[in-house]
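Backbone description:
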Amino acid sequence: MSTRTAITPFVLLVVGGGLLIGAVTAPGPWYEALAKPSFNPPNWIFGPVWTVLYVLIAIAGWRVWQRDRSGAAMKLWGLQLALNFLWSPVFFSLQQVGLALVVIVALLATILAFIAAAWSVDRAAALLFVPYALWVSFATLLNAAILTLN
């Protein structure tokens, strides 16, 4: 497999996995009944934002994988993906808002660590994670506000 075609498994894993988890753990009546802060965005925004972010995550992972498959940045990329995929089931399926906050704080720390580690491996990959870091920062604040309000 050429390095160019190797992007396909990254996109399938990240975008496909994200869409699958989103479909299986879609917000339902429990989430609708929660008190939410005034800055809570409408539900329809999450799908498009996450789809774009998942594409950026896949490209960043692919770029780092091409340059250093077993390095710290690649390991952090895998860890952030696992934490990302864990958050929705913890929050929506288990309805554990406090535990979800722990997961998302760990996710944010891992994203920032990836950016730092990837900076020396592939700056473009590191920069691709900046919108992700910003969104997860916002999502962390949102998770914390929901926990406080409920």
